[in-house]
Amino acid sequence: MRTKTLLTLIIAAALLTTGVAATGLAPADGSPALAIGTAAADQASLETDAQPQPQQQLVRGSPDLDVTAPDKFVTPGNTNEVTIQVSNDGSLSLGTAEVREVVTTARNVRMEAEADDPLTVTTGQSAIGTIGENEPREVPIAVDVPETVEEGTYDIDVELRYTHTRQQDGGVTFDRSRTVTETVEVEVRDEARFSITGATTDVQIGDTGTVDAEVENIGSAAASDVDVVLDSASTGLVIGESPEAGDSARIGELEPGETATVTYDASLSGDAPLRQYSLNGDVQFRNADGIQRIDEGIRTGVTPFEKQRFTVDDIESDLYVGEDGDVRGTVTNEGPNEARNVVVQYTDESPNVIPIESSVAVGTLGPGESSDFRMPIEIGGEADPVDRTADIAIQYRNADLERRAYEDVELLFDVEPKRDQFRLEVQDREITAGETIAFDIEVTNNLDQTVDDVEARLFANDPLDSDDDEAYVESLESGESTTMTFELEAESGATAKTYPVSFDFRYDDERGSSQLSDTTRVPITVTPTEGGFPWLLVIGALVLVAAAGGGYYLYARET
Residues 162-171: what's their mean pLDDT? Predict the structure, then answer.
């Protein structure tokens, strides 16, 4: 029992001595040292566990952060991106290389920069994270440089806040936080700088065209190998072939104050609104030393032309079921540009409404100009006489002779009921049984066009007949009349009543096409014979006499 108590006292004394030594090794800057408490804890541990514990070696040191600006040149009149490079050249004052990074690593590094007037850093605090000795970090900051700033060198103060481990010994860690301020220099050099002083476009909504940009070197030095990259910042407007890529144009060289115009292909979707569209530009160039530079963030805007529009008005039609006719109207170019080789095209499809000519040319129309058109259409015999609408398109060519079409337009026209192509007027509609007469008919052209080579033919059935059933007239204008004469004969034994006589007409219409009219029927009344020798009564009397004589002869023979 005494032996165990004595051993405990010796160990406690040794631990106390070690705690005093640890206290002596505490940092001079006043960081807390918990060696005594640790010794007490170790004593309790030794009482419960007789096995020896491995001890961590003593290590002491600190990180040493520094900042540099690899590309220190900035230009006036721009927001320049300056890259701040943060490096760590830490120091180890006590310990071995294996544990060096414990005390030389800067943790939770935060950076904030401030520039000398009139320069302004617009980037706020940046969180960098951990920076080791072999892991430099780069942080971009935005620096506004006024247009009127003088050339020269300006300071940017960079404040770094971080935490690090000052010392570690036997599982005891001493951490501290630090704030250091470093300075980097930037040089304002007024070399070549660029501005898009004007941009115009001939693009219409729903069409293609070009964008012209006037680029000026507003800097104080010449630039060579100048490439101007332009892309659209707006939905709907495309510069080049794709929205993502934009397009690039080369100028070559630009002296200070010199301007050059570059042209880009552009297109605008058909549903895009009429407004100004933003464009972004970057200029890549070489300075006087042959070093590649880039001037970014150049902006401009263009306003396209409104969509090319047409209207169709004053629509009239002379269409009848079963006939050819015309739809007439006036097409107007509502602008904004001239439309070349304008064509009105019938695009609707219907089995009963068939365009004889599906496209009708009206020529070139300037903005606000109009032209009349006539579209020939055939109406089938099965069509209904109703009001109709039909889709049409206005085809034209733009200033580059590229074909375009405007489809937001339609035709509204009437279809009248079926009618006789020729009106017939008969002055004398009676014929006596057994009589042959010259039958006169007044024929009127009921069509809205002149017809040629009109051949009329009469058709009659028993008891009517005709040995001269054809007539001809060379031409009949619309509404014109002529008298045609036929021969008509009624059998002598015809019953007195009304019989039909039919006519049809073959003719050439105004397009030279041969047409056959519908059949028209005319009523003819057969009347009985009046006056003259009573042949029927004579024949009847003879029949009665013959019958009486035959009867008397038979009677005489029998008697």
Answer: 90
Give residue 55's pLDDT band: very low, low, confident or very high (50, 70, 90).
low
Confidence bin at 5 (pLDDT 50/70/90): very low
Q: How is residue 234 written in tokens?
A: 């707006």
Give phi and psi for 538, each to the nearest 5.
-65, -45
Q: What is the pLDDT of residue 368?
A: 95
Q: Among candidates 192, 185, 184, 149, which has minimal Cα distance to 291?
A: 192
d(CA 7, CA 21): 22
Q: State the chain's mean pLDDT as an integer.
A: 84
Model confidence at 366, pLDDT cuts 50, 70, 90, reads very high
- Give all domains of the chain, ordered by start, each with its CATH number: 2-53 (no CATH), 61-188 (2.60.40.10), 194-302 (2.60.40.10), 310-416 (2.60.40.10), 422-527 (2.60.40.10)
- DSSP letter string over 220-244? SS-EEEEEEEEEE-STTEEESS-TT
Q: How far apart are CA 56 and CA 379, in angstroms?
A: 106
Residues 6+ apart with CB under 8 A from 61: 90, 91, 92, 93, 94, 95, 100, 103, 104, 166
DSSP 456-513: EEEEE-TTEE-S--EEEEEEE-TT-EEEEEEEEEE-TT--SSEEEEEEEEEEE-TTS-
Q: At residue 25, does pLDDT exceed 50?
A: no
